[in-house]
Design brief:
The complex is a heterodimer of chains A (466) and B (297).
Chain A lengths: L28 E10 L2 E11 L4 E5 L6 H9 L6 E6 L2 E2 L10 E4 L11 H11 L4 H14 L15 H13 L5 E5 L7 H18 L2 E6 L2 H7 L2 E6 L2 E6 L1 H6 L4 H6 L4 E9 L2 H11 L24 H15 L14 H11 L9 E4 L7 E3 L10 E6 L5 E3 L7 E12 L3 E8 L4 E7 L14 E6 L5 E3 L2
Chain B lengths: L1 H29 L2 E2 L6 E2 L7 H10 L4 H8 L1 H34 L5 H9 L6 H12 L4 H8 L13 H26 L2 H9 L4 H12 L1 H16 L3 H6 L7 H11 L3 H33 L1
Antiparallel strand pairs in B: 1-2
Helix pairs in contact in B: 1-14, 3-14, 4-8, 4-11, 8-11, 9-10, 11-14, 13-14
Classes of the chains: A alpha+beta (466), B mainly alpha (297).
C-alpha cells in the first residue's frame, strides 16, 4: 500500500483540522438513530453520525453495506424509515431533493447528453431564476476551476471520461451547495487519471470550502482524499476515524482486514509480567542465542595504507620488475575504527521493549508474542494480533527483535517499489512481510524456499478481539 | 470474397426487383396514352425498334397525364386533404401514444415484456378485419351508440361512421403501435439517474420531464411520427371503409382511377406524384436516424 498521504486539511488559522474533537463545533449533518429498510432488508441500521463543515468525509465499505443508501438519503432520493437527518440543525426528512442545499455527483455522471458542457453546468443555475449575466459568470468560473474552458461547447459524448468527470463535478458545484455528495466519482477512470483526479478533488474541496461526502469501495482512494473515513458493514458504522487511525489502530478485525493488507495471528492473551518482561524474550529463545549485533574482529587498526598517485608511479616505473605488477586493492572506504564500531553498536543495541501490555500464546513450542501496546483488559481472552506486512521484517539470519518467527518463503510478489514475501511459519500459518526494494531484484538475497526469520517490534501490531 | 459480394448484392437485388423495377414500370405507364385495350394503355416506348425507337420516345415525350392532374382540382385537393389528414392523425397518435409509451417504460421491469406484447397483439389479427370491426362499433346501430343510448347519454344515435371522425379513429387505432414502439424504446433507454440529477439540480418532476425526458425521447418521437405519417398519406383502406363521400384521400382517388376509370396512365401519374411527395419525409426521416446514430456513437 503506497501511503502517499498528503494532508490537505490545514486551514491557516488552526494547526490541524479536527472539528470532530471540538465539543463546541456544530455538525453540519447529523444522523440521529437513522434506520432504512427496504421490505425485509435493513440497509441502514440505527445509525448515528456527525459530519462537520469543510470535512472531506468518506463512506467506505463493500457493495451492499449501505453506503449508497446513506448518500441517497442525504440527497433526498430516499427517506429514512426511522430517525432523523439534520442539515445545519434542521430536519430534512421531508424536504424534496430539488429543495435541498445538497448536490450530488452521480456515479454514471448523469450528464445530459442533449446539452453542451456549458449548458450542463448552467442547468442548476437556470432553475434558480438567476439573471443571465450571473449565470454566465458562474459557469465560466466553474469551467476555469475544472479546466474545461476549451470544451464548453462540446456535447458530453465528444469529450473523454476524465473530462466528463470534471463536467459532472463542475455541474454539481455550480450551485455552491452546502454539501456535495460524490458517488464513486472516480470509479470509471483508469488508475493514473484516478490518482491525479484525487488530488484535484482535494484542491477543489479546499478552494471552495464545500463539505464533501464521498462514497467509495476503494480504500486507497478514501484514505488519500478524506479527512475522516467511516468504514461500514451491513448497515452499521464499524469505525469512524482519520485515515491514520483507521490504518494504524483499527478497532476490529473487520476494519483491519478491509483496509490494506494484514496478518492476523490468533492466540490467547496473557498479562505481561512487567518485572520479567525485558529478559523474557531472549530467555525463551536460549537454545538459539542471538549473536551480538556487531562483532569487532580484530584489535589492530584495520586501516591499511593505500598508495597515492606518486606511490603508484614509483611502483610502476621502478619496482615492477622486482616485485611484479602492482595489484590495485579494491577501492573502499577505510574500515571503521574500534571507537566507531563501539558507537555503532550503541546505536544498534536492541530497542528497549516497552513494558506492560500482553503476551500472546499463539502456537505450541513457540515463544509467546509480545504486544506491549495490548490492552491489559484482554487478559485471558482469545485475541487477534493484527500486523501490517510493511511492519514485518524478513531476514536470513535471526534478527534481534522482541518478536521473531521462523518460516519458509513460499511466494514473492514483486510490485516494483516493494516486494511482498509470503512466508509459511513452522505452525503452518501464512504471513506476509513487505520490504522496500532498495536493491535490484537480481541482488535480492532471499528467494523461494529459503528458511527465513520474520520479525516485528513489540508495538507493531494491534491486539483485537473478534 | 464471393460470399461477401453475394451478401452485399442480396439486398440490392431485392431493392432492384421489388422497388426500382416496379417503379420504372409505373413511370413508363404514367407516360403512356390511355387505350381501350388490355392492358388499357398504349406503350410509347417500343424497345424492339432499337435506338431509333428510344429517340422517338424521348422527342415525342409529353407529360399530358401530369398536366391533366393540374387541370382538375380534384387531384390537388386530394393531395392536400391527404396531407392534412395524415398530419392531424399523426399528431393525435403522438398525443395518445406518448403517455402509453411513457407508462410502459416506467412500469416495473417484469411487466414490460407483457405490455409490449399487448401493444403488438393487434397485428395478429388481419388489418382488414380490425377495420371492419370498427364499422360494427361506430355504425348507427353499432356497439358504441347502443351503449351510449343504454346509459342515457344520448337519445339519438350519433353519426360517426362515414365521417372524417371515423377515418381519424381508424387511422389512430391502426397506427398507434408504430408510434408507441419507437418512443418506448427511446424512453426505456433513458437513464433514471438523469432524472435524479435534474431533480437534484432544482427541477420539479414536471420540469425534469420537459427538460430531460422529452428532449431525450425526441428521436423516438420523430421516428414514430414518420412511421405514422408516411403510410397514412397513401392510406386507402381506412378512408374507403370508414370515411364518407366527403373524405377525399389520394389513395382512394388512385384506386378509383385504376379500377373504376381504368385510366392506368393517369393513375400511374398520381402514384408517381405521391411517391415524390413521400420522398421528402422519407429523406428527413433517414437524416434523423443518421443524426441519432452519430449522437449515440
Amino acid at each position: 500500500m503506497a501511503q502517499s498521504k498528503v494532508k490537505p486539511k490545514q486551514s491557516p488559522s488552526t494547526a490541524a483540522f479536527e472539528p470532530w474533537n471540538d465539543p463546541n463545533e456544530k455538525p453540519l449533518i447529523q444522523f440521529k438513530g437513522v434506520t432504512k429498510r427496504f421490505g425485509d432488508f435493513t440497509a441502514i441500521d440505527n445509525l448515528t453520525l456527525d459530519i462537520f463543515e469543510r470535512e472531506f468525509f468518506a463512506l467506505l465499505g463493500p457493495s451492499g453495506c449501505g453506503k449508497t443508501t446513506m448518500m441517497r438519503m442525504l440527497a433526498g432520493f430516499e427517506t429514512p424509515t426511522e430517525g432523523q437527518i439534520l442539515l445545519s440543525g434542521r430536519d430534512i426528512g421531508d424536504v424534496p431533493p430539488n429543495k435541498r442545499a445538497v448536490n450530488m455527483m452521480f456515479q454514471s455522471y448523469a450528464l445530459f447528453p442533449h446539452l453542451s458542457v456549458w449548458d450542463n453546468i448552467a442547468f442548476g443555475l437556470r432553475r434558480e431564476k438567476r439573471d443571465k449575466d450571473s449565470i454566465a459568470s458562474r459557469v465560466d468560473e466553474m469551467l476555469r476551476l475544472t479546466r474545461l474552458e476549451k470544451f464548453a461547447n462540446r456535447k458530453p459524448h465528444q469529450i473523454s471520461g476524465g473530462q466528463r468527470q470534471r463536467v459532472a463535478l463542475a455541474r454539481s458545484l455550480a450551485k455552491a451547495p452546502k454539501l456535495l455528495l460524490l458517488d464513486e466519482p472516480l470509479g470509471a477512470l483508469d488508475r493514473k487519471l484516478r490518482e491525479e483526479t484525487q488530488f484535484e478533488l482535494m484542491d477543489i474541496q479546499e478552494t471552495t470550502g464545500t463539505t464533501f461526502v464521498i462514497v467509495t469501495h476503494d480504500q486507497e482512494e478514501a484514505m488519500t482524499v478524506a479527512s475522516r473515513v467511516a468504514v461500514m458493514d451491513e448497515g452499521k458504522m464499524v469505525q469512524v476515524a482519520t485515515p491514520q487511525t483507521i490504518y494504524e489502530a483499527p478497532n476490529s478485525v473487520y476494519v483491519a482486514s478491509f483496509i490494506g493488507d494484514v496478518n492476523l495471528i490468533r492466540g490467547t492473551a496473557n498479562l505481561r509480567n512487567v518485572a520479567t518482561a525485558a529478559p523474557a524474550a531472549p530467555e525463551s529463545e536460549s537454545e538459539t542465542k542471538p549473536e551480538p549485533v556487531t562483532k569487532i574482529e580484530t584489535d589492530e587498526d584495520p586501516r591499511k595504507p593505500q598508495p597515492n598517485d606518486y606511490g603508484k608511479w614509483l611502483h610502476d616505473r621502478l619496482l615492477a620488475p622486482i616485485l611484479g605488477q602492482r595489484v590495485d586493492e579494491p577501492k573502499a572506504l577505510p574500515a571503521p575504527t574500534k571507537a566507531e564500531l563501539a558507537a555503532a553498536a550503541e546505536l544498534q543495541a536492541p530497542v528497549d521493549v516497552p513494558e506492560g501490555g500482553l503476551t500472546i500464546d499463539w502456537a505450541e513450542n513457540t515463544p509467546a508474542l509480545i504486544a506491549a501496546n495490548g490492552d491489559p483488559e484482554f487478559d485471558g481472552n482469545e485475541v487477534v494480533l493484527a500486523l501490517r506486512p510493511e511492519k514485518m521484517g524478513i531476514a536470513k539470519t535471526k534478527p534481534d527483535a522482541p518478536n521473531v518467527m521462523r518460516g519458509k518463503v513460499i511466494d514473492i510478489a514483486y510490485l516494483g517499489n516493494i516486494s511482498t514475501y509470503h512466508v509459511e511459519l513452522k505452525t503452518g500459518t501464512m504471513v506476509k512481510a513487505q520490504v522496500a526494494n532498495t536493491r535490484r531484484v537480481s541482488r535480492r538475497n532471499i528467494t523461494w524456499e529459503d528458511e527465513v526469520w520474520v520479525s516485528f517490534s513489540a508495538t507493531a501490531g494491534v491486539v483485537l478481539t473478534e | 470474397m464471393m460470399r461477401r459480394t453475394f451478401l452485399i448484392a442480396l439486398p440490392y437485388i431485392w431493392l432492384l426487383a421489388l422497388f426500382l423495377v416496379p417503379f420504372a414500370i409505373v413511370l413508363k405507364i404514367s407516360l403512356s396514352d390511355i387505350a381501350l385495350a388490355r392492358p388499357p394503355y398504349m406503350p410509347q416506348l417500343d424497345l424492339t425498334g432499337g435506338l431509333a425507337a428510344v429517340w422517338d420516345f424521348i422527342t415525342q415525350l409529353d407529360f399530358e397525364n401530369f398536366v391533366f392532374l393540374t387541370s382538375d382540382d380534384l387531384y390537388w385537393k386530394a393531395y392536400l386533404s391527404s396531407l392534412k389528414i395524415a398530419a392531424l392523425s399523426t399528431a393525435i397518435t403522438l398525443v395518445v401514444g406518448y403517455p402509453i409509451a411513457y407508462a410502459m417504460a416506467r412500469a416495473a421491469k417484469e411487466w414490460r415484456p407483457t405490455l409490449l406484447m399487448l401493444v403488438i397483439l393487434p397485428f395478429w389479427t388481419s388489418f382488414l378485419i380490425r377495420v371492419y370491426s370498427w364499422m360494427g362499433i361506430l355504425s348507427t346501430e353499432g356497439v358504441l351508440n347502443q351503449f351510449l343510448i343504454g346509459i342515457g347519454a344520448i337519445s339519438e344515435p350519433l353519426q360517426i361512421l362515414n365521417t372524417q371522425t371515423a377515418v381519424y379513429i381508424g387511422i389512430v387505432y391502426t397506427y398507434l403501435p408504430f408510434m408507441i414502439l419507437p418512443i418506448y424504446s427511446a424512453l426505456e433507454k433513458l437513464d433514471d439517474s438523469l432524472l435524479e440529477a435534474a431533480e437534484d439540480l432544482g427541477c420539479s418532476r414536471t420540469t425534469a420531464f420537459w427538460l430531460v425526458t422529452l428532449p431525450l425521447s425526441k428521436g423516438g418521437v420523430i421516428a414514430g411520427c414518420f412511421l405514422v405519417f408516411i403510410p397514412t398519406l397513401g392510406e386507402f383502406v381506412i378512408p374507403s371503409l370508414l370515411g364518407g363521400s366527403e373524405t377525399l384521400m389520394i389513395g382512394k382517388v388512385l384506386w378509383e382511377e385504376f379500377f373504376s376509370n381504368r385510366d392506368w396512365p393517369v393513375a400511374s401519374a398520381v402514384a408517381v406524384i405521391l411517391l415524390l411527395i413521400l420522398i421528402i419525409p422519407i429523406v428527413l426521416f433517414q437524416r434523423n436516424e443518421q443524426k441519432q446514430r452519430e449522437a449515440e456513437g
